[in-house]
Amino acid sequence: MLLTGDYARLLPALAPMRIDQFVLEYATPRAGDIDVVGRVLADRELGLGVVNPRTDEVESVETIVAKAEQALAYYRPDQLFLNTDCGFGCFASRSVNVEGIAFRKLCAIVEAARVLRRTYG
Known about the structure:
It is a single chain. By secondary structure, this protein is of the alpha/beta class. Helix content is 37%, strand content 13%. It contains four helices and three strands. The chain has helices at 11-14, 34-41, 61-71, 99-120; strands at 21-24, 45-51, 80-84. Helix 3 (61-71) crosses helix 4. The protein is globular and about 40 Å long. The N and C termini lie far apart (40 Å). The model has no long low-confidence stretch (mean pLDDT 91).
């Protein structure tokens, strides 16, 4: 069973950590709104999960940009990094997704980053 719910219950543990960047999964609705983390952890960098490596559907550039723009309400552009949720090779004997789909998902992240850089510098 996958965990559900936003990061609110973890914030008391995350906030005092002396680290520069949190890498959090936001590609699926189960992570909740970015507002929960943004209100508390905006003084750090955020590795924002914007694609789900477990699905065959390739997220659109527009969808990725929209998620990033939600985070930009709290984070400066230089604090924001676009990532996959988890990774494409979670298991040594079996990848989570096939190479072609993983490549297309990564290409969508790259194109979304280009769009965001043009818009937000």
